[in-house]
Design goal:
heterodimer; A: Beta-Lactamase; Beta-Lactamase; Heat Shock Protein 90; 3 domains; five-stranded antiparallel beta sheet; 15 helices; about 20% strand; disordered C terminus; B: about 325 residues; alpha/beta; D-Maltodextrin-Binding Protein, domain 2
């Protein structure tokens, strides 16, 4: 029941609460005030009635008039000392209880027993009493009238009708009640405005909806692999998910640190002023390549914070190179098919011409070539991964009319486990492809592959007879640097990826270039994390 | 934290003990000056008599060493004396009686027993009804029968004002007998002496007064006591029947006590409890009771307060109840 009562909109809750508090407060205050007011009015009426009755009782003319039973004179005297306002009345009895003065002439002369007047007539008491003897329920002041001989000869009763007193109290309370009502309505209005303001701040969301949003945001932030950092308008970090901590190598408390302290490259003031968005900016942080997006949060033309997202570049690189290798495989297959169909055309032509001996010769030679090449590869190169790469490149070479040779002095056992196929494809594949490209300008195109794994290191050497490398050799391995001028193609990642892969294997690469050719030598330690031959 | 609290508690406790011991040191010296007894009436009445008896015995019996004076503050049925006491310190006390209660109930005073410090109740005496020696009435019940027939037929003398115990006792007896007391004609005199004079001069037919006031006159045959409001017949007045014996079930004691000004300390109250309880044990006090026709009615300060509260309720009922519902 209570749950259901609490499960209402924020507006209802606030308005209800404020209304409740105000109502109880007003009722309480009004009650207390009314209580004291009623007390005060009654006390003052009691005092007044007693005072007036005393004044009349002590008046010698009243004493005389009672003796003479002169109602007319008493009426004059009563009018002189009391007023009919506010329901005031006076009744005078003589000792016998006979009424000698009463506002209603018909009652004069009748006898009333002394009940409420007992203490006055017998003991000469002056007092007030709640009485309905004469006219109606009233607060009555009683005073005895003494004769010259100190005898009680009558009783003066002066009273206020309760009905009239209550009417007066109601009148007094009415104005206060109206004021309270005004305050109450004002309070409701203000609480309504407050609730509306809060709703606006929370974009119309109920607190429980905000809680749900907050919970789902936390789990979303925790589950994504992108790093997310948010700051307030001064650049203090308000939020950072685990991925961001991992990417930035942070641990511990980050809240209310300035974003500059963890991303020094980053000028909050500039972003604040320029309100510019940085998209896909690549930067190196803690030896990691990170792609960063930076978006200022603008609310109603005011800068309120920044959201930064971070992605690990190496992940992207890996994806990219795998994609390019897959593409290469399909190219190699196509090349093989092409060459195969060429040879079939020659054979078919020779057969048509009836030159069977030549066919025989051709087939024999072809078989020898394949066998020799294969033998070289399969006998000297034991590693299936390298074998696969070389076989593919041989086909490509024959299609490109490149004379691709595996050096007969090569010797390679199976590679250790930690050198993966992607590394081999990236390193050997790229270097051989580059060599093929380099020799395209020559009439006689020679590319030699050499591999050796004596000792602690594995050595690959790819030699071409191209025209050599021009320009800054150091920059060869930078991203986006390419000696090949084909605009529009995504170039320049080949050697960069090679270098990355070699680095990840703790290896090294050396280049020996001249106008007669270039040799790339790759040295990879056999053990993971082992020493390199640098 | 607890240690700090404990330390604070100890400090506060020590301070309190020190304060209370120093104040008790002061009261060991109480009284520091002369003592004044306020008799709220002119010399010669019951209040004055009580005050002077106390003054005499406190010093004669060596109960109190300090000088004691009696001051008379007559007027307003005790009102003047009690108002005076209100502004005095603990070296003053006053005699009181039921007037302290009835004056307030009758709208003649704003003071109640709660405004003072009750120190004790000392005595009671009994109220009697007297007639002239040559009166036609020989017993109280005859008077009541006559009044029942015609309540205005007799004039009754009372002093010093309506609403005192003498008056109340007579009204009470009359009411018990079924007399319409609202029609009774009381004549008010200033003192008991005036009442006796009025009775002898045939200005009134009946008088109501305390036994102590009437007894001597009765023995001198100056007037005739025809009824007493006591439980038992009074010693020396065995021939007079009580109201009870005459068939009216009413006993009406007239008590007197003492009270101090407001806000007396417990030590001061204890001092008076000590001294007064010692006083009422003395032989001399017994003699005084006998001589004045007073009865021993000692209550200490605590009992007195309860007694006054009870009496206030009683008197309120007595004064307000017209008996018309009977």
């Amino acid at each position: 029941m209570l749950r259901k009562l609490l499960y209402v909109s924020l507006q209802t809750k606030i308005t209800g609460l404020v209304t409740g508090i105000m109502l109880s407060l007003i009722i309480l205050l009004l009650g207390v005030f009314a209580y004291f007011d009623i007390q005060q009015v009654y006390t003052s009426r009691e005092n007044l009635s007693l005072q007036t009755s005393k004044t009349l009782a002590f008046n010698p003319e009243v004493e005389e008039a009672i003796f003479q039973i002169d109602s007319k004179r008493l009426q004059l005297l009563v009018n002189q000392y009391s007023s009919k306002k506010n329901g005031m009345f006076a009744v005078i009895q003589n000792k016998e209880g006979r009424v000698v003065y009463h506002p209603n002439n018909e009652v004069i002369g009748k006898k009333f027993p002394f009940d409420d007047g007992y203490m006055a007539v017998v003991f000469g008491g002056y007092y007030t009493v709640e009485s309905d003897e004469f006219i109606g329920p009233a607060m009555v002041g009683k005073s005895p009238v003494y004769s010259n001989e100190e005898q009680i000869i009558g009783v003066v009763s002066v009273g206020y009708l309760k009905e009239e007193i209550n009417k007066e109290i109601v009148e007094r309370l009415k104005s206060i009640f109206y004021f309270a009502l005004f305050i109450f309505i004002l309070g409701i209005l203000l609480s309504f405005l407050l609730a509306r303001h809060i709703r606006k701040e929370t974009m119309g969301l109920e607190p429980r909806e905000i809680a749900t949003l907050y919970r789902s945001r936390s789990s979303i932030l925790a589950s994504i692999s992108e790093g997310v950092i948010a700051t307030d308008e001064k650049g203090r970090i308000t939020l950072m998910n685990n991925s961001a901590k991992k990417l930035l190598d942070l641990s511990g408390e980050y809240k209310s640190q300035r974003i500059e302290s963890i991303l020094p490259q980053f000028d909050v003031e500039k972003i604040k002023k320029g309100r510019k968005t940085i998209i896909n900016k690549e930067m190196n942080l803690n030896h990691r390549d990170i792609i960063m997006n930076l978006v200022p949060i603008i609310k109603e033309d005011t800068f309120v914070g920044i959201v930064a997202t971070l992605r690990d570049k190496t992940q992207i690189t890996e994806m990219l190179s795998t994609l390019s290798e897959v593409k290469e495989y399909s190219d190699n297959l196509r090349a093989q098919t092409h060459e195969f169909s060429n040879k079939m055309h020659v054979i078919s032509g020779l057969i048509q011409l009836g030159r069977y001996d030549e066919v025989h010769e051709l087939v024999k030679e072809e078989l020898n070539t394949i066998e020799r090449k294969n033998r070289l590869i399969f006998e000297q190169i034991q590693d299936p991964k390298v074998q696969a790469v070389l076989l593919g490149k041989i086909s490509k070479a024959s299609e490109k009319k490149v004379h691709f040779l595996v050096d007969s002095n090569s010797s390679l056992e199976e590679l250790p486990q930690h050198i993966e196929v992607t590394h081999i494809i990236t390193i050997i594949g790229n270097l051989i492809d580059n060599a093929f490209d380099a020799v395209m300008c020559r009439e006689n195109r020679n590319v030699t592959f050499f591999a050796l794994d004596y000792g602690n290191d594995i050595i690959f050497e790819i030699t071409d007879n191209g025209k050599g490398l021009k320009g800054d050799i150091e920059r060869l391995f930078e991203r986006g640097f390419s000696t090949k001028g084909n605009v529009g193609e995504k170039r320049g990642f080949g050697l960069f990826n090679v270098k990355e892969s070699i680095n990840s294997l703790n290896g090294s690469i050396e280049i020996d270039t001249s106008e007669y050719g270039t040799t790339f030598s790759v040295i990879i330690p056999k053990t993971q994390g082992g020493m390199s031959n640098d | 934290m607890k240690k700090v609290l404990l330390a604070m508690f100890i400090i506060v406790a020590t301070t309190l003990v020190a304060c209370s011991s120093s104040s008790s040191n002061q009261t060991e010296e109480f009284p520091t000056t002369d003592i004044e007894i306020v008799a709220p009436a002119s010399p010669g009445g019951g209040w004055d008599g009580t005050a002077r008896a106390m003054q005499k015995l406190f010093s004669d019996e060596n109960i109190i060493e300090e000088n004691m004076n009696v001051v008379n503050k007559p007027g307003g049925g005790g009102e003047v004396g009690w108002q005076y006491l209100m502004d005095q310190d603990a070296h003053h006390f006053s005699i009181n009686s039921s007037l302290l209660i009835t004056n307030n109930l009758l709208g003649q005073s704003d003071l109640t027993y709660e405004d003072f410090t009750p120190l004790g109740i000392l005595t009671t005496e009994w109220i009697s009804v007297a007639v002239a020696p040559d009166s036609e009435f020989d017993s109280g019940i005859d008077i009541m029968d006559k009044l029942k027939e015609d309540p205005t037929s007799l004039k009754i003398a009372v002093a010093p004002s309506l609403g005192n115990n003498d008056h109340l006792a007579f009204v009470q007896a009359a009411k018990e007998h079924g007399v319409d007391v609202t029609q009774l004609e009381f004549m008010i005199y200033d003192s008991g002496g005036d009442v006796v004079t009025a009775l002898l001069g045939d200005h009134v037919d009946v008088a109501t007064m305390s036994v102590s006031e009437a007894k001597e006159q009765h023995e001198a045959d100056k007037l005739k006591i025809v009824a007493t409001g006591s439980e038992e017949p009074i010693e020396g007045l065995e021939e007079v029947e009580t109201w009870k014996e005459q068939g009216i079930d009413m006993v009406f004691p007239h008590w007197r006590g003492v009270m101090g000004p407001p806000d007396m300390t417990e030590e001061e109250i204890a001092y008076w409890d000590d001294r007064i309880s010692e006083l009422v044990e003395t032989e001399a006090w017994q003699d005084i009771l006998e001589n004045n026709e007073w009865q021993a009615f000692y209550k200490d300060s605590e009992e007195a307060e309860a007694f006054l509260e009870e009496q206030t309720a009683n008197y309120e009922e007595l004064l307000r109840d017209a008996g018309l519902t009977d």
